Amino acid sequence: MASDDLGTITALLILGGTAEAVELAGACAARPGLEVISSLAGRTRTPGLPPGEVRIGGFGGAGGLARFLVEREIGRVIDATHPFAAQIGAHAEQACREARVPRLRLLRPPWTREPGDNWIEVADLVEAAQRLPELGCRVFLTVGHQDLGAFAGLDLWFLVRTIEPPGVLPLRHGQWLAGRGPFAVENELALLRAHGIDVLVTKASGGAATYAKLAAARQLGLPVVMVRRPPPPPGPVVDSVNAALTWLERVA
Ligand code: NAP
Question: Whole-model pTM?
């Protein structure tokens, strides 16, 4: 279980589903005496798989996660999930507190505004949908496939880009486009122009892989509806894989 000495740690659990989690698992895999278990929710059919042991599927709430920590003798948890994965983060906080396992939140840095950006920050997807009709009528919607329902009632045209197909598009007008980052600015510019897009919607996910759409929107002078991040649960937070590796070595 938990220890001051990395050499005696039984196991590290990485809560994943992000590029950072894969990178972290890769960096940890080479460390002697550290057993790395990565956990994925199982939302994507072809996820980027980290090296080492991978388990897929929910734990069954905070209680299930706490039992997993004890059964697998987990000594450290790094929550490297997406900035909008609030539920698993809260469960990890509760489970680690109960099982007395040190936990770290690895949270990628948010995007920052550049001169020329026209970002309209909103609290959630519902507010994003409320603001859209005043901002445009042809929308580039780059939220997850599970987030589309918030826009179902709008009489606007949507270009929807998600990794997973949404099945029947739950929108009145629009089309779906498969896409997994990284994206290039030239391609994003061409896409926005080709579809006559006049407003973009995104979650404030951060990360380089999906930033190009924001640079393209800036170049075309388009407004961007930016859904704010939920606050992370209490506890230590770092914003890079290197900082997470430092925490692993230092945490008591
Ligand atoms: P969420 O709302 O925070 O979690 C919902 C439930 O999914 C959790 O209670 C848990 O089920 C299970 N779960 C989530 N992440 C898990 C993980 N890494 N390992 C095992 N179980 C997990 O999560 P979400 O927003 O649906 O995101 C699901 C996954 O997709 C996350 O791993 C996240 O990193 C990734 N992702 C999310 C987004 C996004 O925009 N939300 C974007 C890209 C990637 P139990 O309660 O049964 O344990």
Answer: 0.94
